[in-house]
Design brief:
The chain is mostly beta strands. The protein has 1 helix and 9 strands, in the order E-E-E-E-E-E-E-E-E-H. It has one helix at 108-113, and strands at residues 5-9, 17-23, 26-33, 36-41, 55-57, 61-63, 70-72, 89-95, 98-102. It has a 6-stranded antiparallel beta sheet, with no helix packed on it. Strands 5-6-7 form a 3-stranded antiparallel beta sheet, with no helix packed on it. The protein is globular. The mean pLDDT is 95.
């Protein structure tokens, strides 16, 4: 069952940026990729690191700040060593100025990649 939760306002996160948001007791990394918002787990699957402290690279990947391994933001798939396990993604819903997240659903891109 879907339960969207307010994540942030569109104007709260500039394009090309990432930030940490606590939602429903979970730490999420929230990304604005050219006006499209994405949300993933904040913790790297390789090392204890906050992905929201990393850099967006190659337009749609996040680099872990500890070992520079990368994940594809829309799908959560690992893109470079030492990252080998995907990160969890969440469905983001745009409602005007509000950006919501559904913690019970994965992103559309991740679902399509399976």
């Amino acid at each position: 069952m879907s339960h969207p939760i307010l994540l942030l306002k569109r104007g709260d996160l500039e394009p090309g940026k990432v930030r940490k948001c606590e939602v429903g007791g979970q730490a999420l990394a929230v990304y604005n990729l050219n006006g499209t918002f994405y949300a993933t787990q904040d913790g790297c699957t390789h090392a204890t690191a906050s992905l929201s402290e990393g850099d967006i690279v190659d337009d749609d990947c996040i680099a872990c700040p500890v070992h520079d391994g990368t994940f594809h933001i829309p799908t959560g798939q690992p893109m470079s060593f030492p990252c080998e396990h995907p990160i969890r993604t969440f469905k983001v819903i745009d409602e005007g100025d509000d950006v919501l997240v559904d913690l019970d659903q994965e992103s559309d891109e991740a679902a399509d990649a399976v």
